Amino acid sequence: MLSLPKQLCKLQNLQTLDLHDCDSLCCLPKETSKLGSLRNLLLDGCYGLTCMPPRIGSLTCLKTLGCFAVGRKKSSQIGELRNLNLYGSIEITHLERVKNEMDAKEANLSAKENLHSLSMKWDDDDRYESEEVEVLEALKPHSNLTCLKINGFRGICLPDWMNHSVLKNVVSIVIKDCENCSCLPPFGELPCLESLELRTGSAELEYVDSGFPTRRRFPSLRKLILYSFYNLKGLLKEEGEEQFHVLEEMTIDGCPMFVIPTLSSVKKLVAHGDKLDAIGFSSISNLRALTSLHIIEATSLPEEMFKNLANLKYLKISYYYNRKELPSSLTSLNALENLRIECCGALESLPEEGLEGLTSLSKLSVYECEMLKCLPEGLQHLTALTNLSVRYCPTLAKRCEKGIGEDWYKIAHIPNVFIS
């Protein structure tokens, strides 16, 4: 559906118009402003919306507006938000069409105390990059905000309002495709911040936080995602006493220089290793409380990387293309319950001594490892193993045929075996 029938605008008593996830919708009827009783205009997921209809700001009963696409004409500019007392969440798109600070102030975002989630997005049309810092500065939200997302901003620095006083209640921040920002605001000082996602940033950024190590940083942060920062070296520029006291989940992707510090609380890690070097993988051993680890596209894994992970219960290794063997330190994972090995095209064998040490292992899955020739002898001694799945491993599947396969005696004791 590209558009709506104009007859819709004759429904004078209409209070809710739900267009949720109409991603092909490019425009609303020009006379939408005649829907004077409209309270909820649900536009979440309407990613194709190119601009708002004229004078939408006259809908003073409107409380929910999932998306506002800034138009080029004055009647559909960002100032139409000024008199709307909005609740909940809103995504403002096409902010590249806001030409200056004065136009941005017309949105009056700082007065919208009932707006709890704000997403601001710049697209790749004509840009006023020299004005973008001032524009974003003028889009300061109310201090009641709890979720903030900034996408596609091309200014050289993020605004001054991204500090303790304005974002004191924020629990989630996403900064995406802000490639000119060579430094970040002091996110570590935000008392309620629980989730921080930084994606595709400046190649000049070296640390997530450059604050004083004597202060407690990130007191509430539980989830951290870092994606595509090619020179990012670490979390804190100055390492004092351990910070990130409640951090539980981390995802590291496209950060080849990154070294993981000692973090006693992290339990879940996803490490995308197509660019993460051996030092980065070795530093995983600093996460001694780790219970879940997913390694993707590693080019090499240090032999001793699993040695200190005594609490690890779930391990997934996928797209480990170039190596014939896994690290022998697998043997130290006595608490491991679930091991998944997927799409490791060069893998020829599993470590004999490694699997014998996996005394808690209950699930083993091997998927699309075409070169894997056989299962290790030690598998038959893993009495806790109750589920074995082998898929798209032709040589291995043949050896595991029930009753007649060369490896059947190694797995005959396992209650649930799936071979395909």
TrEMBL record:
Superkingdom field: Eukaryota
Gene3D superfamilies, alphabetized: Ribonuclease Inhibitor (3.80.10.10)
Record keywords: Repeat
Pfam families: LRR_14, LRR_R13L1-DRL21
Domain Disease resistance R13L4/SHOC-2-like LRR: 275-406
R13L1/DRL21-like LRR repeat region domain mapped to chain residues: 78-199
InterPro entries, alphabetized: LRR_dom_sf, LRR_R13L1-DRL21, LRR_R13L4/SHOC2-like
PANTHER family: DISEASE RESISTANCE PROTEIN RGA3, LEUCINE-RICH REPEAT-CONTAINING PROTEIN 57
The name this protein goes by in its record: Uncharacterized protein
Source species: Solanum verrucosum
